[in-house]
Amino acid sequence: MASPEHRDESRPLLEGSRPPSYAGDDDASCESPTASDLRPANKLSKVDLIWVLAGLWSAVFLGALDGTVVATLLTPIGSYFEKSNQVSYVGTSYLLSVCCFTPLYGRLSDILGRKGAMLLALSLFGSGTICCGLAPSMETLIAARAVAGMGGGGVMTVSSVAVTDLIPLKQRGLYQGMANILFGLGAGIGGPLGGWLNDTFGWRSAFLVQIPVLAFSTVLVILKVNIELPDEVKNRTTYEKIRRIDYWGSLTLVGAVGCFLLAFSLKSTEELPWSHPLIWGLFCVSFISGISFVLVETYWTAYPVMPLRLITRRTPLFVSLSNFFGSMAAFSVIYNIPLYFSAVRLQNATDAGLHLLPHSVALSTGSVFAGWMMRRTGKLYGLTIGSVLGATTATILICFWNEKSSWIHLWLDIVPQGFGMASLITTTLIAMIASVTKEDLAVATGITYLFRTTGQVLGVSLSGAILQAALVHSLRTRITGPGSEETIERIRHSISVIPTLDPQLRSAAVAAYSNSIRIVFICQAALNFITFLTCLPIQENPLPGSHEEQEEQYRRMREEPHNGHAVLEE
């Protein structure tokens, strides 16, 4: 292994094995740390910690609430602008923006500091939300949601990084569980709140009412979030910090992820064929941007937005993959379970949605349970494997749902999926953080959220594409004769017409949906099994119980960067 050496900004970080400092690699050679180096720099009193968490988590709560509020408002927004055919892009633009910009905030929080990066995220989210409330046209609203997404992804990432700075790893999972409860609470009340605000004051009020909470979060971040970074970061001018931003790496990463996800979204929402020029054109741009990103990060930039050396390490790689495949399965379940009860069981939207309630409760309890277990035992590997096996078992049971399934199965089979996936994303986040040095934890957190959000979008779009392909084939084998194509199109695009059909057509439609959704359920089980396989290589690393122990672990990791953090090629 090459010894640490002095570097300048023109040399790539991938040379050698020493992780970069917050400020870059142009600092002096590593020396044995003094006692002052091991003192925790960000140990807060309980009162200050509560205020910091209130500032960070109020923004997280609002981000979750915003998502379900907007989902409730799509129909009235489309009617208001008389452009219901474009209203799906209000949600798509936000999700794509979140996916594209989430990974950038890990590095930005190192360059601008945790406070600076969080304020940037809040500013973008807030300005986008205000513009949504004042939007004069559908096009302006779609663009404003994209701006809000630029900040929304950062809110989640930077808040997670900041809490990691303040909380020892052994307790970190429990705090993540509490954050997930707040996230679930926001997502749960967003729908009813959005509907009430729309009916009472109009849809614009649902955006503008978020501003006071954003202001509260911003004030607390300004006053209370003072996380200390190394002197070489604090002492640099704003201009020097801005120069260190990896603009080309950020641009190529956004292009690669954005075009890739947009192609799948258009395939699903617009039902374009794979051979359509727009679809394969976007895939080509994504591929070229991806290659450019790898070249830029490897040979060009001195301070990469996503160091490829992290992705080639064993635990970070498999944590990323497990989050990707697990999120695909989880969001496919969330979107298709209500569809099953609406199209196959012919329940109304309210009753169909209620079947997700046990899943929501399991999500909250699973995350807290995982945090409590890690705090008690200091271990995470067995918990990770058990969690993903529970989720896999749940999706296998769901595959066997039929007209004879009892209410116990229909209500409770989904519980291990929610519990297991919530536990999994908590344990794998801690596994990722425990596998990297302090200097890399922000970027590593951003990578985790990138793979997670990308999996969420792909899970929804791919399951929709699979469902529609199977449904068309199944309907055409069951419904034939004059006017059959028109009937098939009505059934595909509006589930509400199924109960109004004559008994023979209704039976054919229900059978077609049942078979098609079962194919999606089988794909979900397969994705969870792949998630299980990707969890097997994740390493068990010590979880320090105090700030002092954590600083000591960082010191040992710097001295032996690959000890317990194997690189794939080794």
UniProtKB/TrEMBL annotation:
Xref: Gene3D superfamilies: MFS general substrate transporter like domains, Multidrug resistance protein D
Keyword Plastid on entry: no
A Pfam family annotated for this UniProt entry: MFS_1
InterPro entries: MFS (IPR011701), MFS_dom (IPR020846), MFS_trans_sf (IPR036259)
Compositionally skewed regions (Basic and acidic residues) per UniProt: 1-12, 546-570
TM helices/strands, residue ranges: 49-74, 86-105, 117-136, 142-167, 179-197, 203-225, 245-266, 278-296, 317-341, 353-373, 380-402, 414-437, 449-471
Keyword Transmembrane helix appears in the UniProt entry: yes
Compartment(s) of residence: Endomembrane system
GO cellular component, as recorded: endomembrane system; fungal-type vacuole membrane; plasma membrane
Region (Disordered): 1-38, 543-570
Span of domain Major facilitator superfamily (MFS) profile: 52-543
The entry's keywords: Membrane, Transmembrane, Transmembrane helix, Transport
Lipid bilayer topology: Multi-pass membrane protein
Main location: membrane
GO molecular function: basic amino acid transmembrane transporter activity
Protein name in the entry: Vacuolar amino acid permease
Organism of origin: Rickenella mellea
